[in-house]
Write a structure and sequence with these properties.
By secondary structure, the protein is mostly helical. 68% of the residues lie in helices and 0% in strands. Helix 1 packs parallel to helix 4 and helix 2 crosses helix 3.
């Protein structure tokens, strides 16, 4: 289950998660949106909600989908740990492929000399 999907997380929880995953402080995101930091902090505390147009801008600035902000479903914040693990696995597979190609070349060479 997605821990940011309703009913587990609130819109404020997802706003906070998106902002933090994007590496933004409250003040920086508020400034980018043309808001007071207190306004954004209020949204994150579920004291009020942003308008639909601001939700779209928040989604763009934080790299999540507007639907994720509203519901917790769909593309949310990127998990750096998961991305790092995928990159490490890709590097490992590349190494294995190079080793296999070298081995195939050695076997072909041995077979060609009979």
């Amino acid at each position: 289950m997605d821990s940011y999907a309703d009913p587990v997380a609130t819109l404020g929880d997802r706003l906070t998660a998106a902002r933090e995953a994007a590496g933004l402080e409250v003040g920086a995101l508020a400034e980018a949106l043309g808001l007071r930091p207190e306004t954004l902090a209020g949204w994150e505390a579920d004291q009020a909600e942003p308008s639909a147009s601001l939700m779209g801008r928040i989604a763009t600035l934080t790299g999540v989908s507007p639907i994720w902000l509203l519901t917790g479903q769909g593309p949310g914040p990127k998990d750096a740990g998961a991305e790092d693990a995928l990159r490490a696995e890709l590097a490992d597979l590349g190494r294995l492929l190079r080793e296999a190609a070298d081995r195939v070349a050695r076997l072909e060479e041995a077979l060609s000399h009979g």
